[in-house]
Amino acid sequence: MLQAPQTRPNLFCCMKKADNSRCQECRIKIDRLPTVVEYEGQEIFLFHPVVCETCLLELCRRYATVCENCGEAIPPFSQVGVLKADDGRKQFVHMNTACSTVGSAFHGYWGKGQLHHFVEIEAC
Q1: Which residues lie below 8 Å from residue 91, measured CB to CB, with a gap of 6+?
Q2: Which tens digit of pLDDT belongs to each residue from 102-117?
Q3: Gyration radius from the chain CA atoms
């Protein structure tokens, strides 16, 4: 029997009970992971770090950066492509097929307002 396609993924298949987990920001108890929120039209599913919905939204408001290709927000705790601007500063893009013009040669992890684990693969 055919079923109608779901417009939203079934989160119960990937959610897990969070044993003794607390929000790293406000220390309230977290019952289920991932934390799921919507920020500026993007759904965020965050397993690590453990933060509650309220704190995750506040972190997004404070630390999101702008994608240089599409102009939309890149929330914290996201993989990013890294471009080098003409003036030498780093610019960030979403790591998806629509935005990532850098491939995987220059990438990292956007944290709380700064780049972490930057990888630069030199061409031979």
Answers
A1: 68, 82, 83, 84, 85
A2: 665 676 767 788 787 7
A3: 17
Instruction: Please enumerate in sequence order all residues whose Cβ is within 8 A of that of 8, keeping only pairs 6 or more positions apart, or say none.
Output: none
Residues 107, 88: Cα–Cα separation, whole Å: 16
Cα 70 from chain centre: 16
State how many domains the chain has. Answer: 2
- Global pTM reads 0.71
Which domain range does residue 46 map to? 12-63
Question: Does the residue 4 lie in any domain?
Answer: no
Tokens of 30: 């977290």
Please tell me whether residues 35 and 75 are part of one structural domain: no
